[in-house]
Amino acid sequence: MTQKKVLIVDDEQDIVDLLSYNLRKEGYEVHELTDSTKALELATQINPDLVILDVMMPGKDGYEVCKEIRSSLATATSPIMFLTAKSGEIDQILGLELGADDYIQKPISPRVLVARVKSLIRRNSERTKTETIAAPEILRIDTLEINRQNYTVRIDGKELFFPKKEFELLAFLASNRGKAFTREALLSRIWGETILVVDRTVDVHVSKVREKLGRYSPLLETVKGIGYRFRM
After folding, report:
1. Which residues have a Cβ under 8 Å from the Cβ of 178 and sit 6 or more positions away?
2. How far apart are CA 48 and CA 65, in angstroms?
3. Is pLDDT of 189 > 50?
4. Cis ω on the peptide bond leading into residue 218 (within 30° of 0)?
5. Residue 9: what pLDDT?
6. Residue 105 near residue 85, CB atoms below 8 Å
7. What residue spans define the domains of the chain?
8. Contact 205/173 with Cβ under 8 angstroms?
9. Looking at the domain that runs over 5-131, which CATH code has it been given?
10. Average pLDDT for residues 7-36, to the nearest whole number?
């Protein structure tokens, strides 16, 4: 079995050493960076199965690095875990809205971190397999094109930028046209059951997706008392 690759980006060397030691013990191939400005370059080179990002770093903070990773075709689908001392709900929601897959507060037990890493990598692998089987790689609705292979959305041939979670939400609903999903179901499907996020996260993402869809926004319907669906 191929070793899973984890990229750790944190300006505190002692934390990097601790995480690297524990992840290598579990058989992961670990790459380390204390300079956040080089994160995208290295991530593009190694195509990691998971990126662990500190939020508060000199140069570029974790939010900026997350945006870069999500904007690059080579790394758009790599799971991202924020590891940070910031504990506010707003900070957590911001991180998840930018496309992070998990958000863990410091200090954290290395055993807990390893468990979350395993869960994230496994869930991402299972999701990729399921999506490949469940829906075509390219969904076309009139001039709206959703390409699940390279995470792009085009309208009238013009490419629009969708962060990872917005894209996954749109692609999932569009792949199941006519079927309504509760906010809880969407949270579990898109964000995962192990991540603590609020229902409002779904509403915020739906609002952003609608804004970008322009004239196609009415296709993304609110089902009163239930949640959302993509109209047939």
Report:
1. 229, 230, 231, 232
2. 14
3. yes
4. no
5. 95
6. yes
7. 5-131, 135-230
8. no
9. 3.40.50.2300
10. 94
Q: What size, in residues, is the chain?
A: 232
What is the rounded CA–CA span in Å between residue 184 and residue 219? 21
Q: What is the pTM of this model?
A: 0.60
Backbone angles phi, psi at 50, to 5 degrees: -165, 140
Considering only CA atoms, which of 164, 138, 142 is closest in space to residue 155? 142
Please give the class, per CATH, of domain 135-230. Answer: mainly alpha
- Residues paired with 147 in a beta bridge: 138, 152
pLDDT of residue 214: 94
Burial class (CB in 10 A: 0-12, 13-18, 19+), 62: buried
Whose CA is closest to 43, among 15, 8, 17? 8
pLDDT of residue 221: 94
Q: Tell me the two tokens of residue 175.
A: 């792949």
| Mean pLDDT of all residues in 183-210 | 78
- 68 three-state secondary structure: helix
Checking phi first, is residue 95 left (phi over 0); if not, alpha (psi -120 to 50) or beta? alpha
Both tokens of residue 41? 């370059």
pLDDT in tens, 116-143: 899 888 877 766 544 443 456 888 999 9
Task: Tell me the two tokens of residue 159.
Answer: 């490419």
Integer Cα distance of 174 and 231 in angstroms: 8
Mean per-residue pLDDT, 58-63? 89
**Gap between the Cα atoms of 201 and 4, Å rounded:** 30
Q: Looking at residues 164-185, what average pLDDT do you find?
A: 88
- Nearest-CA neighbor of 98 among 130, 128, 124, 64? 64
